[in-house]
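Hey, resending since the last one bounced:
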Amino acid sequence: MKVLLVMDIQDLKDKTKFNKHLKKEGFLPIENENFAYEGEAHTHLFNTRAYIMDVVSKGLEKSDFNSCKLMFQVGENPMEAYAYNHKKKNFS
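The structure tokens again:
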């Protein structure tokens, strides 16, 4: 299934490092879009959701940032929006 990620990231210090991490994990930037990525999912929706949040969290931690809101869609299934929690180091 096709996966679409869209993020609103404030004050990202190293976008190159962030993009490199996402690319390594199979999410490619969408041309002419800021913080929009696409990829493919080959697992159950619940596992894919957890994987996406883990990949984005690790990329953010490597890059230093102020805040991040994440929305994504897996196939025809849009997911709710998530905000990164710095204290817990995950999305909620």
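The chain has a mean pLDDT of 95.

Sorry for the duplicate.
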